[in-house]
Fold these 3 entries.
Entry 1:
Amino acid sequence: MKRKAEDPPQGQPPPRRIKKDDLAILCERHTTSKLSAFEDLREITTYGFRGEALASISQIAHLSVTTKTKDSPVAWQAKYLEGAMVPQKPGMPAEPKSTAGRQGTQIKVEDLFFNIPIRRKAFRSPGEEFTKIMDMTGRYAVHCQHVAFSCKKAGDASIGLSVSANASTVDRIRQIYGSDAANELIEFTLEINPQSVDVNVHPTKRHVKFEHEEEIVQAICETISSKLAVVDKSRTFMTQTLLPGIKVTTISPSPTARHLVRRVKRQGQVGANGVEIRTSCVKELKAEVREEMHNELTDIFSDHSFVGIVDEQRRLAAMQGGIKLYLVDYGHVCYEYFYQVGLTDFGNFGTIRFTPPLDLRETLRIAAEMESRNLGDGEDDFDVEALVEKVAEQLLERREMLAEYFALEISPQGSSFLLGLGPSVNWMDEKACFETFLRELATFYVPEQLPQLPGDEESAREEDIDEEVKERRRNVRWAVEHVLFPAFKARLVATKSLMASGMMEVADLKGLYRVFERC
């Protein structure tokens, strides 16, 4: 195994530099500064294999390195092309050349993509490229302690970014993102045994895998929650409770009604009213989701491209995954997604409050009467008042649990969602209660099925379509494309049942190529 200079212990200034003897193999593939023995692969605590980056850069640019160690009287300079050391000038040997220089290592990249003109033409404007460079430099500058960073655009007198080596993490964030962000930070550190982390699951190290994921996530959430509670136990935030851009017609109890979200107070595993949160049932439900995970479909959603909505009535959309085109039941996907969000955020929901509070029985009565009208005359008729009283009694009896676990505060003075909590939730078993409640909550957030547009061209004129339906259709389309599918990409665990009944492959690029070849 080829090896360059070692990295310093974590958190310490880097005392070692690239030595002259390391220069010969510096830009060869699989050269790494991280490992001195094969066993080190199990305990990586750094960013990974930077030697691969130097090898790649030397393939598409002119790369030069100048390095000087503390015990060397001079600095040494070498140039590279296509992974190998090359002469400084034509006719000279391809050996490092002594030169004057400061202690440390400087790496210079010039003529980027000089040998790939089509890639060079793909560059955007200098301003856009510099913005991307600044963003990436800033990200590294925040996390790399004891390393100085500076970034300057060619031709500009001022420096775009300058961070000193002795700057603290907070100072680095202040310099890069401003005082407003830095002043609101709360320090939080959670260190994992390197043997429990797999850093080689993604080529750019953007993702890692680690053991005991549930316990680690739970510990992080609890610690952050307790820190936030200590900082401010009583702050109230005004917020928009609907998805951005969504407009709906609502029945408001007062012209001055407001939606407020209160931060839920959590201290360890015991809530504000003394109810202990039993996490074992939630862990079991999360484990059941993981057991049902369809790995291939989850990967498809995490890297998909949204194509468009096909049918609002059947809630169908098209998306591309790799070289394949899929028809997606986005109602089913939303149901799975919101259920998983409920499990992830269990016991830590924000509270939505109406001022003045909604009357519980009157709200239930509205939903029951709507349900009765939908059923019409027949054997399925039911006593509205009896149903209202039964559901209200169930909710009031369990209001302490609802407030603590789901931030749903029910009072005697206090929709169809509330009405469904009566018959649809299993109140007798803890695990079944959590699951059925969250599934009912997920059902509530699934986008509605919209009526199909008239089929013939004459009746489908824009002016003939109801304004409310047009508005609802625009809202659903916007939310599906710009809110829901991006959310699926970020955190959906696609299940086997979703693959079986919510997805249909309609085309793949290879198959289309074969069709075209026959034509």
Entry 2:
Amino acid sequence: MIAFFCVNSFSIFEAIQDELLKNTYYIIILFLVAFVACTKKNSEKNTLTLQEDSLATYLSKANDFSSAAMKRQDYIEKAFNIIINQPNDSLQKVNLFRVANRYYNLDDWEGYHKITLMVLEKSISSKDTVNIAKAYTYLGDYYGSQGVSDSAFSSYLKAEKMFVHLNDNLNLARTRLKKALLQYNEIDLAGSEMSVLKALSVNKEKNANEILYECYNLLGLIYNEKGDFGTAIEFHTKALKLNDEEIPIGIQSKATSMNNLGLVYQNLNQHKLAVPYFQKGLEQKEDLIIYKPSLYGMLLDNLGYSRYKLKSAEGLPELFYESLKIRDSLHLTSGIIISQIHLSEYFASNKDTIKALQYSNKALAVARNSKNFRNLLLPLKQLSIIEPTKAASYNKEYIQINDSLQKADRKIADKFSRIEYETDEIKQENSDLTTQNRNLVYIFGSVLILGMFLYIIKAQKAKNRELLYKQEQQKANEEIYNLMISQQNDVETIRVKEKKRVAQELHDGVLGRMFGVRMNLDSLNKIHDESASVQRNSYLTELKNIEQDIREISHDLNREKSELINNFVAIVDNLFEEQKNTFKAKLVSNIDSSIKWEAVSNAVKINLYRIIQESLQNINKYANANVVKVEFKKETDNLFLQISDDGIGFNVNRAKKGIGLQNMLSRINECRGTFEIKSKKGEGTIITVTVPNIKQ
């Protein structure tokens, strides 16, 4: 026994140990799984963080103007490879726009165009109106850079309309400014002025000095081109007074305004006043070389030209050479031509005709290669001066090109106006169509509402007429029933009186006489004549029979009073007979014979009759019943009416609002009785009516 216990204890111990080892094993596995999951989650989180950090780093380095172009382009591509794998949401679009901006700063128009179309496509597919409008402004910048001015103008116009609809005044002002710059570059000065003034009218945002500066600056350039130099100086001064700390450093606002003010004084031929502005602009040399080298080259050239006009040799011709070198490295065709023409003028004034011709011819060659006829004007004009033998040829070509350019300028201005007009016309047509459709909807809706209103009124009137008709019919039926009851009562009363009279006559008249005859005949029995005696006995027997018959008739007439079927029962039986003959449902009726209907008031009997009638009508209409039962019974002083069917049943809570049940309840209330209805779908219906205080 002990050995057995020990063995079993050892086995139990081993089982417990195995179970503990097994549980420990499971815990280790769960711990490892949780550890791996956490590690994976943290790894994914760290990967996302690293990607975000990398993206920010790449975008920042791509915008480092001090780095080489190839290096910056490499960073842009790395940033793009991260962004393209992001979900198609607003954040991805924002990052793609940032990539496009980097391409723009690098003058990589192909990359800029590709990214812009990608964002536009994604925005249209997701119905992102804000980014669609923004993409159109970027597309306008691309077409403007490629000289496709009508497409650029159309793109800006699309963006403008969207920003108006979005009530985005900041972007609306920025887009109108871009459109104004495009018009200015195409010498549509009137259109440019109108667009920039429209931009100013909506530029009401705080801290929007960048747009305000660009608007003032552009207005100064426009009025300078128009020859309104005083107004030009006024707007350039306004631009200069703005806080340049709130304006992006890439614009180089101070240096730009200094250069533009100097150009106005150059056009006024006041070169002494122009030189200080160019010199102040060049004080920003370090920033200009990094952020805006084209402006730096322009300032050098303008300073050199004003000094040349002042017949000062300071820094000449080195200023022209340096400017030409910068413009050539940036492939600025117009700037290259201007620098070469200024060098030609400089060497011509120094009687070095060879170099003067050399630079003029170089400028002419660059202009012809540029396919921009406007660039030909300066070289042709300069060559006509320094090469008099060919002046007529140069002047003729100059006049032809100038005339064609003026016509082209008028055409492009008209084209801009036509594009804007057609867009507004389409918008007006759409607006008119929308208004027309809205009016049609309003008219149709009004007619529909009016029609429904009239229909409801008509239906309500018809319903009211039907209800009044039913009420009048009900009153008429009640009056007819009362007349029937009264008539039945009158007939019954007359019959009872007549029966009483006949019974009385039989009892008091005929029986009395017959009794006298019997008495007389009985007295004859004292005569002992055998034949007379036999005959008298037969008469007496006959008289007794007659007397008995009369008594029976009299008793039968009196008994008929109580045994005649009551008039209410007859009316109800007529209703039941009509139900049986008209409808397929089997009718089973039971009227307690112990009920004394003469003790029941006519009002109660009318209401009970109407309840039976209404119930049978509802059963015939809705119940789809096979068997209908109607039962009258008496308990103590209460009269019970129960109507049941085996039909489809109904929802009692909803049906209580029906006019039929409301009428029944109203009738029961008049009788001071109670009304109970039990019904379920598929289980038939039972209506129980209790009328109290029926004295029997």
Entry 3:
Amino acid sequence: MKSNKTSQRMAMVLLSFFAVIFLVLAGRFLFIQASGEVAGVNLKEFAESKRTDSYTLEATRGKILDRNGMELAYDQPTYSIYAIVSEKYSADKKHPIHVTDVDKTAEEIAAIIDADSADLKERLQKGIDDGLWQVEFGSAGSGLSQDQKKQIEDLELPGIQFTEEAERFYPNGTFASQIIGLAQRKDGVITGLTGIEQQLNDQLSGKNGSISYERDGYGYKLLNPSEEVQAAHDGDNVYLTIDQKIQTLLEDTLTQVNKKWNPKKISAVVMNPKTGEIVAMSNRPSYDPNNPENVENWYNDAISNPVEPGSTMKMFTVASAIEEGKWNPDEKYQSGSFKPDSKTKISDWNENGWGSITYLEGMQRSSNVMVANLVANKIGEDKFLEYLKKFHFDQKTGIDLPGEIPGTILYNYQSEKISTSYGQGTTATPIQMITAASAIANDGNMVTPHIIDKIVDPDTKKVVEQKKTEVQGKPISKGTADETLKILESVVTSEHGTGKPYKLDDYSVAGKTGTAQIPNPNGGGYMEDRKNNYLYSFLGMAPADDPELIMYVSVQQPELKVTETGSEPVAFIFKNVMENALHYMDISPDQTDNQEEVTEKHVPDIDGMSTRAAKKALEETGMEVVVVGEGDKVASTNVQSGDAVIEGERAVIVTDEPTMPDIKGWSMREVLELGELLELDVETIDTGYAKTQSIKKGTKLNKNDYLAVEFST
């Protein structure tokens, strides 16, 4: 009886205990159901986060284009490969979407991406052994081209997936590289590092968007995925003032000079003196932004490398004298040497001079003594300094590029004040020289140089910003500018003018030569006095009476033969670029002897002609003509009626029955131009000139056909 009572009490205790536990748990469940929270965490939000995928919608970086809309920099898709290795990812075992054969997968992919198959096998197997969902293939599996992606997709290997990301591409290779600059992926984002890419990085970058949705355990979207999309806003497009054809002329010419004379450095700038628009600018050494390895010089020397300009400075000394009313071209002076004081002696470049000559002849012969006399005895040293500052030789030009470094006016001692008159001691950059010279070419108005033409929204096509001509000073009057131009023209045309090598066939030229000593890098004066140790330059404008273009060229320490002069590499650049650029711009020649010859160098009107007749008409201008297809009718061409013919330019005629031409040896620019004419999907590999093409010669072409072209230097 006693034992039975004890059992009943224990049963009641246990029943009470379980009842309390039940009530606590039930209460907890009721609380969770009512509040939806556990330990301060909202369960609904927690569940949604666990089954929600979200990722960034990357904005497309804006394009950089030339003044005519030719693309100079744009985003190009590349691909990275990864492998799903977990069996759990395959809901249907008969149709697996994970890697089922490690050996086969590794070997077949390795052959396409040029990787070690053993390394890929190890990565795949380790991922499986460690229970990972997916594995990547390292650097070998990234940066794949569209062609490589297609080859791998054609293998139909289960478990192989791709991610797409953009990389910056520069279709012209070494082309205005220090202007356009370089952008590379940094921390997952393409970021501008130099040039316009850096200067306008915020405008080019745009704004990323995002997308999120709910999915199941296998990664598939739910029927009601609660998808949220915030669209990306692509970066603005930037149009530059440079002209792709004139820039190409400049690049090709600099490359030829670099190969023939192997100078230490070359800088060249071509500007419209009326607007300040830079139509071409380049330096050597330069680099290919698609392959920025072993770069010798990242800097844009045209704006960031101040040098002693030499005798090109004399044009500003003479202009200052004219403005002050101190210039008499017929007055004579004794050339050879000059002592402005007991300590300073100035000598002409030929030491003995040319006897008693006029000031005009002194300018034509590039006499140091002549300009020294002007500063010491006519203009005055203090007044000359005022003009140097009016020409802004002591400040930046304000060009819209990063990294501009102005030169310095060295003007402490009388010897420095006098030597500045002929460009020694005081330093300036090419962009400073050409900016100051714009006053002489533009009725006394000195314009601010600029490289950006406009910024355009890619979606609305609305112009966000439009650059305008800006006059930053008027150091001289129109009358002084006109008289200086005539003097500079005589430097080129007179029988003893140092500028004779720069005379053009069809246009008059006004300009001034320069030969500057190279400061010794170890200090203590200048390098050894021999002709390979000079900076040779020319600052010229054409046509002389009303310049449309102004150009500065400098070549430092070229390897000259005994029979060669320092003006030869400089003149080669100036004459080739200036003559062809003026023809291309359709500027009327002012050298009448060659008028008939010039009119024959324009693209004829081939509208309505048969293919054969159009080919003949274009060949008669001296152009190399490529006919694309066998059709009798002309569907399109890459040249327009009335355009000036540039020597060596390739004309492409697309017929109404286009077939693939042999493009081996074509430049990347020409290949991309062909792609635009035929509306092909073109992928370029490497840089240089076309080496192989994926579409065989003679193959019939259709719109959006894929063409892969491999280039080689």
